[in-house]
Amino acid sequence: MRAVNQFVVRGHRYNNTKGDLIVNTSEEDHRFSNREGEVVALPLGYEGPIGVGDTLLVHHNVFKFYNDMKGRRQSGRSFLKDDLFLVDFDQFYMYRSDGDWHPHDRYCFVQPIPPEDSTIFKPVSEEPLMGIMRYPNDYLMGQGVESGDTVTFRPESEYEFIVDGEKLYRMFDHQITCKIQRS
Questions:
Q1: Who has the most CB within 10 Å: 135, 158, 160, 174?
Q2: Do residues 84 and 10 touch, judged by C-beta distance below 8 A?
Q3: Which residues, other chains included, contact 92 with Cβ-Cβ below 8 Å and sequence gap of 6+?
């Protein structure tokens, strides 16, 4: 079975357990929604780099349940059947192929950094608006931004993901404002 314009992926709905312990029972909390799905079928005529068996990092609403106006539990528009879901090109941000993550389209991923020493007290756990570029897209690499570079970004551009156990921010390439040269 193949869709015309979507990837068919297999995935479970929520990541709300640690071993046998349930850490969250709310289906509304997007932080516990599963965001990874295995590609089981490619769109018809697709000739890109993603293959069957690769993993897509998707929007949190792909797998979630929601409640309709009468409070009835429903599957979202991505649900196909059983544990299969349809993922549009604008619903995923990165894919893993041969063990390596690759950003999709205009997206990149930045790792937050601890606060830097300063004479000004900063009661934060992360340096505001700064991070380490982990997964730059082709456009950013063409501009000289490489993986491992320290970058700054626009306020309110952070969309948090946990990728391979690391906290990363997904953002668009135009939200990266500059590359910091360290001496």
A1: 135
A2: yes
A3: 7, 56, 57, 58, 59, 104
Q: Where in the chain are the domains?
A: 7-102, 106-180
Residue closest to 132 by CA, chosen among 146, 121, 120: 146
Residues of the chain by 3-state class (helix, strand, coil), percent to 5:
10, 40, 50
| 0.70 exceeded by pTM | yes
Say if CB 105 and CB 49 are below 8 A apart: no
Q: Are strands 7-10 and 84-87 parallel, antiparallel or unpaired?
A: antiparallel
The domain 106-180 belongs to what CATH superfamily?
GroES chaperonin (2.30.33.40)
Each of the 183 residues of the chain gets a pLDDT tens digit; together they read 899 999 999 998 866 666 777 666 666 656 667 789 999 999 999 999 999 999 999 998 898 888 889 989 888 899 999 999 999 999 999 999 999 999 999 999 999 999 877 777 778 888 889 999 999 999 999 999 999 999 999 999 999 999 999 999 999 999 999 999 876
